Amino acid sequence: MTGALAPTKPLTAIDRCDRCGAQAYIRATLPVGGELLFCAHHGRQHVAALREKGADIQDESARLSQTRATASENER
Q: Where is the DUF7455 domain (predicted)?
């Protein structure tokens, strides 16, 4: 065992926030196993505490800005 984490797959529209059911953009992989999924809003609330507890955080919330920028460009 090398101790390296397995690569995580990108989050999709099927992945839903464990708090509210919105699309998940943040995955917290817990050191004891398992994972939690959060929308950007709930991720901002919980990610600092999860990091302190040793969780590996996959944050794809920047995609929200990219989506808005693309939508604005398409409206022109």
A: 11-64
Residue type, 15: D
Closest among 76, 40, 75 to 57, alpha carbons compared: 40
Among residues 3, 16, 4, 68, which one has the least CA distance to residue 27?
A: 16
Q: How far apart are CA 12 and CA 23, in angstroms?
A: 8
- 20-31 confidence digits (pLDDT tens): 999 999 999 999
Element (H, E) at 54: none
- Per domain, the residue ranges of the chain are 26-75
Which residues are CB-neighbours of 60 under 8 A, at least 6 positions away? 10, 11, 25, 26
**Tens-digit pLDDT profile for residues 50-62:** 999 999 999 999 9
